[in-house]
Design a protein that fits this description.
Two copies of one chain form a homodimer.
Chain A (H helix, E strand, L loop, with lengths): L4 E13 L2 E12 L5 E5 L4 H11 L6 E5 L5 E4 L1 E7 L14 H15 L3 H17 L2 E7 L4 H14 L2 E5 L1 E2 L13 H18 L6 E3 L2 E2 L7 H14 L3 E5 L3 H10 L2 H4 L6 H7 L7 E5 L5 H10 L2 E4 L1 H6 L7 H7 L4 E3 L11 H18 L10 H15 L17 E4 L2 E2 L19 E2 L5 H11 L5 E6 L2 E5 L2
Parallel strand pairs in A: 1-4, 6-7, 7-8, 8-10, 9-11, 12-13, 13-14, 14-15, 17-18
Antiparallel strand pairs in A: 1-2, 2-3, 5-16, 16-19, 19-20
Catalytic activity (chains A, B): guanine + H2O + H(+) = xanthine + NH4(+)
Pfam families (chains A, B): Amidohydro_1 (PF01979)
Pathway (chains A, B): Purine metabolism; guanine degradation; xanthine from guanine: step 1/1
Amino acid sequence: MADKNQLFLGSFVHSKTLGELEYLHNTAVCVDRAGRIVAIEKDCDEKARAALLSRLEWKDSEVEVVSAREGQFFFPGFVDTHLHASQYPNVGIFGSSTLLDWLNTYTFPLEASLSDPAKARRVYTRVIRRTLSHGTTCAAYYATIDVASTTLLAELCVSHGQRALVGRVCMDTGSPVNYRDASPEAALAAARESIAQIQDLDKDMVLVRPIITPRFAPACSADLLRQLGLLAAETGLPVQTHVSENKDEIALVKKLFPRKNTGAGDDSYTAVYDAFGLLTSRTILAHGVHLTDDEAALIARRGAKVSHCPCSNSALASGAARVRWLVTEKDIVCGLGTDMSGGYSPSVLEAARQAVLVSRHVAIGAGGEEKDKLSVEEALFLATRGGACVVGLEDKVGGFEVGMEWDAQLVGLGRVGDEAGEEEEGGDDDDGNVDLFGWESWPERIAKWVYNGDDRNTKKVWVRGRLVHERK
Amino acid sequence: MADKNQLFLGSFVHSKTLGELEYLHNTAVCVDRAGRIVAIEKDCDEKARAALLSRLEWKDSEVEVVSAREGQFFFPGFVDTHLHASQYPNVGIFGSSTLLDWLNTYTFPLEASLSDPAKARRVYTRVIRRTLSHGTTCAAYYATIDVASTTLLAELCVSHGQRALVGRVCMDTGSPVNYRDASPEAALAAARESIAQIQDLDKDMVLVRPIITPRFAPACSADLLRQLGLLAAETGLPVQTHVSENKDEIALVKKLFPRKNTGAGDDSYTAVYDAFGLLTSRTILAHGVHLTDDEAALIARRGAKVSHCPCSNSALASGAARVRWLVTEKDIVCGLGTDMSGGYSPSVLEAARQAVLVSRHVAIGAGGEEKDKLSVEEALFLATRGGACVVGLEDKVGGFEVGMEWDAQLVGLGRVGDEAGEEEEGGDDDDGNVDLFGWESWPERIAKWVYNGDDRNTKKVWVRGRLVHERK
């Protein structure tokens, strides 16, 4: 909670539709002590501002004013719809491995080691601080199978003020014996315990909520998947898992879960989750690189969501997900995920940039189809509104609307001085690699930010009105 | 020139072969006043260091000692083998355009405007400072058709201390009338004038040299190409141009230069340059995305070089160049190019990262072929030794060897503190997004640098022993 009511002044940019950003200049956004947006006033001069405060019955002394400088703008906080907090120390380390050998070589040993609480605290603190500094105001985290350190992750999110879904990983097969649940029953008991501990931390689920997390079908027995499906139905909690990331993985699922055993509607990977009650409107499916037309239709029918993770899919050579096809032709809600450490970067802005680039590889593969190409605006929609919908918070975050909460970042871009380009004007800190020469339109500034921006451009970050990161 | 002899101490990392980095720890590298490496001493303790200085007859008072801190390392400066200095203000701005419409919409108008000397100074100064800050010690620049401002670019390279090949762009067709040479003769005269002015600046071509620059076949008449081929033979100067970037471009070349007119060996794009004497061992061909087997064989026979520009090829949806095939199967020397502003980033490290990722898209397209995947080590080879060979400086730069010149960067990576990950140790400035936890091997540290590093990790940059950039 913020100490005071807050009045944000300046330029605001957010997604209006998938393909269109709205630019609100000289605008005032009023945020109450509870972090809720209570008024938005466009073209707000001194007089209009006074009238606005009077209408809200806010006294000047009770209002903290935060002004964006010329050229800066407020943008909604990013939603990272898929990442493994526990894998953060491995970012960038994968050699030439692909999914299944990468899990065994790099991932499982690191995750297992995080049952050490000191190590877990060090890693989880770092990943929260790092992602906040990149403007990630909400994250859907996988932790590990360890209940205590999963709760610690949730605690650290609360103390650092990051909105999060935190999942204790369930897996009773397909991994080393020292890093798996002993049985479906043991997994279910641990899942329940983790849910209880996380709910206990934040009873109204204001900032942090638990999420049911079957790792992925190859790491779960049919019994476990069935019980987690029942748990999802019983609790109404969200679910996160992986689907159709890699071709060997898909073949493995087909072998492990033959249709005759599961009673699934067809032979597909997606149908396995559906057979066990895990494909719900509150389900986040990471990747979906190789989804068939039928699978996409099934996902759309169930209202499940997809987290697109382009950095990871390229780095592990999983494939190029047809995200624009999923969104525009199959009507599936998609967001972006950094998928650390399959993905190498903590930045959702980097995920947006790679989403744009990977969509061009999809287009190239399809003979240059324009309809496969994601625009900068569309990638930013996925990073904000799309992601908010993926995590079930579309009424609260992802844009600037009265009634929504103030999850936002203040973005500043560098300006090249007139004096022979030697000096920058007006910047009192390092503005990174975005160089504005002064003649760029607002859409061009946004494109420059998406292509060359980094955490240096994210000056301040708020969640529910609370300032949770500020660049020094 | 440096004021003093210099002694660099610490860890040094450079490419030994395409696939292998050499790690030299506790090593001393001696650089004389002329910027040349005169001795390299491994495992150099105090006593060995004293003996070394005595052998070189260097008095202590005449030696400046530069020590890498624990965890920092010296790395060869990067060579950017292809970029358009004149397009720098447009980085990140391309919408969903592809090559030919992008040129007309974004590129030609900006380039034409740089005949204004004040604007050219502002832009060129910025691009030199920006690329130096990313560790680019040598760049193969395209300027514009304007002779005076092309010379200004060369002057600014000299004054900022960046090694460069600077090309005045020749083009007498296929662009707006206000931005093309009036005739082949006018183009040739301007090319000769530009060469003379640049050579006059730096008579021994120590730092800067001119490069013959036919923009690309579709922007040049057959007459102009022929005359530039003769100029290359007459002067022995290097040549740079574009080849086989985009399928529409390839079709256009086929239409513009039918074999019966050029007398080329076959119908290919590459054969057009060959027919005009422009395919030499000193030729840098940018892109080569869609080269056929025969074209690659022709390039190899002529000893021409390829500049791989993955950022640009993805952003403009040109395609995914099979760079590992070019290097390992066709024996073509390749380097990396940022290709601003077809490419969005000033960073060769970003080009290396994208080269690794794009190579995975090549592998995906080929059904998951391991042999298409570039490793981190291979990408760094292309960024240094490969690039040096592309620009004809392989005896001078690209690695640490006695007799070579000291073009280098000092790299520092961030460390996560033990105290709950809250604090970083030992860093007195911002180390960017690379987080070392302390247990990483040296190859893992390098991988983390390639995947998450940026200009914040490049602490100092030297060219020919002169300190040309230092992070504040």
